[in-house]
Amino acid sequence: MKNYKVYICVTCKNKNNNQNEFYPFCSKKCRDIDLSKWLNEEYAIEDNIIEQK
User: How far from the centroid of its chain's Cα atoms is residue 1's Cα?
Assistant: First the structure.
């Protein structure tokens, strides 16, 4: 008996299990949508570095 964890796809919010090859996405399409958002700079990581003189 295999024990799968259920998760929500970060792109489309559909339920899936962690045995999916595209985890944490439910499909290649959702993975590519997320990558596209990073490449188009729709997502960003804040830079909290304060420069000292």
Answer: 28
Q: pLDDT band for position 2 (50/70/90)?
A: low
Query: Would you tell me how many other CB atoms lie within 10 Å of the CB of residue 42?
Result: 9
- What's the domain count of the chain? 1
Q: Is 53 part of a structural domain of the chain?
A: no
Query: What local confidence, expressed as pLDDT, does residue 36 receive?
Result: 96
Contact 18, 2 (CB under 8 A): no
DSSP 3-state assignment of 40? coil
Sign, CA dihedral 23-25-31-35, equals negative
Q: What is the CATH number of the domain that holds 15?
A: 3.30.50.10
- The answer to whether residue 50 sits within a structural domain is no
